[in-house]
Specification:
Helix 1 runs parallel beside helix 2. This protein is globular. It has eleven helices and 22 strands. With 435 residues, it is an alpha/beta fold. Belongs to the peptidase U32 family.
Length: 435
Amino acid sequence: MSIIKKPELLAPAGSLKHLEMALAFGADAVYAGVPKWSLRVRGNGFIREDFIKGIELAHSQGKKVHAVLNIIPHVRRVAAFERIVDEMAQLKPDAFIMADPGLIDIVRNRYPDIPIHLSVQANTVNAGSVKFWQKVGLTRCILARELSLTEIEMIKQECPDMEIEVFAHGALCIAVSGRCLISGMLSHRDANIGACNNACRYGFKVRNVHSATADDVTTFEADDGTILSAELEESMHHPGEWMRMEEDLNGSYLMNSKDLCTLPVLKKLIEIGVDSLKIEGRSRSPFYSAAISRAYRLAIDAICEGKEIPEESFTIVNSIPSRGYTTALLEPHRPDKTQDYETNSPNPGNWQICGDIKTQDADGTLHIDVKNRFEKNSKIALFTPQGMIPLDGASLANERDGKALDVAPGTGWSVTLKHKDKVDISKAVMLRIDN
């Protein structure tokens, strides 16, 4: 059997807690946004001190931290960049993730020894572009999400000496590689400088609907050949502002993509020789970073050992909130297999965080701040780097007076549960599992 190179598993870190959880649950590296200079302004909890601690922690484990500087700045902002990059370079991140050629040129001139990874924002879709950036001195290209498996393979074959990174899991934009104008148009919040408000997830209302045949209109065509012409209102934030639109009969969440999940094609991506598999989600919770890291850690290790992906990987991704899954443009699909036309509400999954463990007594008793309702008969467990640990709710009691409880009602309550084994509470997530 031929030896398969194991790719890096790269996880999102929206805060230092994200970083700690992702590394504990199997990530080889994390990426974290530099404040005001990456594309997740509202979901970025990192400050300079977090980078210092995070880089030290990762390096102590033989792992990496990539600092994201991938905004595409307007001219007035460029002058401040040199000071920011000087500060970040002192912290010795393992790479900068960047998109803007002008900023890349500044970093190459000032810090030629720091690797630069080309952001997905640069929309790299062919081997010629990869070779160009390699000549400029970059060490890795994060390929555009508009590529098929065949195209990724062709690029890797033509550029064997360049590291190739591909998104493996997470939210998708309808825009080209995330370069979206919808948020800017509706809310004057430019996604390309990190201020996206996820307008593509909003609900839309329609009025003045006119149906026509495919002979009348040449855009969206439903299965029965009918086209709908209407006026569109984003009702949550812009009531009363109507825009002309055309849509098919599936509904009006016309910009709401399902989430990417590459478990069905992961073996192929690894066989292609992709160097890094990236999880999207700096705006998601630390639990999300941990859970998806574990799912893909188990899957990557199994594939590289010649085994099938374990069922636990699929259980994890199907048990946490998502918008449904697709392999997107990696494989051919009908549009209704990649888009959720009918709702912007995520599938809630059947795992819900129900408590935050504050402390554990010498006898094993857990002291818990309740986050979501659970009952003593609920199926509850601790999600840990070693796997799921069942909890027995029979001993549920009010922390304040020790009285037995049938129900932990929700936020504001503190309870105790007896548990015989010692737990690393800093890495354990308490879940209610709804079957």
